[in-house]
């Protein structure tokens, strides 16, 4: 599977940043909370893979790393624009993004590069699990505002396309054996605890900053159903989460490459949607927008 960098820029109408999801504002803010992690998170992924690039000799894997870096850079760019819409609407995306960046910068300073890569493969497994669930279950987001729906489906497809890259780097550069396994398993446990704690807090912060829904606590019930109902975003992720602890695990053991046939039609849809709105599907410079 060779990831390809695609210069994609879905049109996100600013007026819908707080209620673009078909299931209402609480679920919208849950998904928006995930968006806040991407700019700093994906830069961390890029850096931790890049730190090992010279240790990889296989030309195929080198090309895959270049594709991986290109894709994550595009995701970062689009999520910076996405998160700016939250900020403009009075939602605290910027301080929360700075918090994520501070945590990750601390990890860059104190952790050896092998531990940084271990965090990257754990979080890449998270993005692959979330992406796989979203692609397999049209109910999760179908009927939502088209531009926001498109940005998430595009991101999910590319996360799927490159889900094996960081892991292949890990398998190439780390000596096989018990200590490699233990580091991978241990990091998944700590990542699970810290990542979901942060998502939970970010979700509450976004909801509480939104005048339209902060008093409607029943909305949290709808969000809980979205996450833990049937099938439920998190509930359906459980088998894949446990699978990560199998000693011989590889992301492509779950073969969902058939989904990737959706990429080209999706890009045509993104262009058509932007044209309908009378805007360009080319990204404005982030610097100009920031
Ligand atoms: Fe990404
Ligand atoms: Fe990724």
UniProtKB/TrEMBL annotation:
Concerning InterPro entries, the annotation shows: UCP07580 (IPR016516)
The Gene Ontology terms for molecular function here are: hydrolase activity
At the top level of its lineage, which domain of life is listed? Bacteria
- Membrane spanning stretches: 181-204
Which of UniProt's keywords are assigned here? Hydrolase, Membrane, Transmembrane, Transmembrane helix
Q: Which PANTHER family match?
A: METAL-DEPENDENT HYDROLASE
**Name the record gives this protein:** Metal-dependent hydrolase
């Amino acid at each position: 599977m060779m990831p390809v960098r695609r210069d994609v820029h879905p049109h996100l109408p600013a007026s819908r940043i707080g209620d673009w999801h078909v299931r209402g504002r609480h679920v919208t803010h849950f998904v928006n909370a995930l968006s806040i992690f991407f700019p700093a998170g994906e830069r961390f992924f890029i850096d931790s893979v890049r730190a090992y690039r010279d240790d990889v000799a296989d030309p195929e894997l080198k090309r895959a790393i270049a594709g991986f870096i290109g894709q994550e850079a595009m995701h970062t760019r689009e999520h910076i624009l996405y998160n700016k819409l939250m900020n403009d609407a009075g939602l605290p995306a910027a301080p929360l993004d700075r918090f994520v960046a501070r945590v990750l910068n601390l990890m860059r300073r104190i952790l050896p590069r092998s531990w940084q890569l271990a965090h990257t493969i754990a979080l890449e497994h998270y993005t692959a699990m979330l992406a796989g669930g979203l692609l397999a279950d049209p109910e999760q987001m179908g009927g939502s505002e088209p531009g926001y729906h498109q940005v998430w489906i595009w991101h999910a497809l590319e996360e799927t396309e490159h889900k094996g890259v960081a892991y292949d780097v890990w398998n190439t550069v780390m000596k096989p054996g018990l200590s490699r396994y233990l580091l991978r398993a241990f990091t998944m446990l700590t990542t699970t605890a810290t990542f979901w704690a942060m998502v939970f807090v970010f979700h509450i912060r976004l909801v509480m900053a939104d005048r339209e829904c902060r008093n409607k606590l029943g909305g949290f019930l709808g969000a809980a159903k979205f996450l833990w109902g049937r099938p439920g975003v998190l509930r359906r992720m459980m088998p894949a989460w446990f699978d990560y602890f199998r000693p011989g695990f590889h992301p492509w053991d779950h073969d969902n490459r058939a989904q990737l046939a959706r990429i080209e039609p999706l890009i045509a849809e993104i262009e058509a949607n932007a044209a309908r709105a009378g805007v360009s599907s080319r990204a404005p410079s982030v610097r100009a927008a920031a």
